[in-house]
What does this fold into?
Amino acid sequence: LFSVGSMMFETARKLGMNISEDKILDLSPSSLNFLRATVFEQIIREAEDYENIVISTHACFRWKKHVFQAFDFHYLNELSPDIFVTISDSVLSIKRRLESSLQWRGRLTLKDILVWRDEEILLTKSIADYRGKPFYIIPSPSPGETLFNLAFKPDSRKVYLSYPITHLEDKEASLANKDVFKEKLRKLGLTVFDPGEIEDALLLEKLKELKNSGGDKLIIGSNGFEISVREMEEVVEDLLDQIVARDYQLIDQSDFLIVYYFSPIMSPGVLSEMNYGFSNNKKVLVVFQGPESPFFNYYSTRIFKTEEELIDFLRKERLITE
It folds into this structure.
């Protein structure tokens, strides 16, 4: 694993350049390009000793209200990656890490983070598309086997896991059961994309709690940094739109959908995902005990009463590689 950011600081020290963490992105473009080129020359040399390598780098940086490139096309062509991935996390988790960093503390609002996160995905996908290589979004909490399967196990089927979140009588228990089912699918050799692993909805829940209690700010992280209610309110619409768009992107990169439905109340979100997947040439396999609705049936390839029935079907259709 080559971490470009860490290697750039190390290279600067070796060259006698005393660059503090909070100043490196203030360097002139020529100095940054020189450091980056030096690092990639080292990566190319050392890569000869390995059969496979992973390069960790940003696609772009959002710094002082503008965005700029964080990679070099020359070295991208030299290395010719086989797969491109964006590891994506929730906006609150990213905010927490940035506020714990001397380099980023106090620099980016929630709105800035949402824009930067979207830019990273768009730019990385555009590069992958141009080079004719696969691109995937991987939620940060996903296990390492997700990346391993995508890179080295092309026979592992990719699955989008859809499930209700709202209108649950016992949300904690229901989602815990979903997680057990998800791990069961992963142990069967499936590569599972769980949209809930990017916990953007947590910000909306925290905002609702603050409003109900009359609070005016959210205190988060070990260093106790604050986010005002106003800053949170400013990103609600953006966040909701990004949740929908990203979930559809996760469906696009999946081979089929598994709907794990444990509520008698129809979820508009789940129905929308079923509709999107079904209408875009994806099988929609559902675990659901009813009561069924005509719309639910319409967008289902097949409905199973139990998890075991679904798993038997997956084995019969050779959709799992256990």
Q: What stands out?
A: The chain has a mean pLDDT of 93. The domain at 155-193+255-322 is CATH 3.40.50.450 (Rossmann fold). The first strand starts at residue 2 and ends at 3.
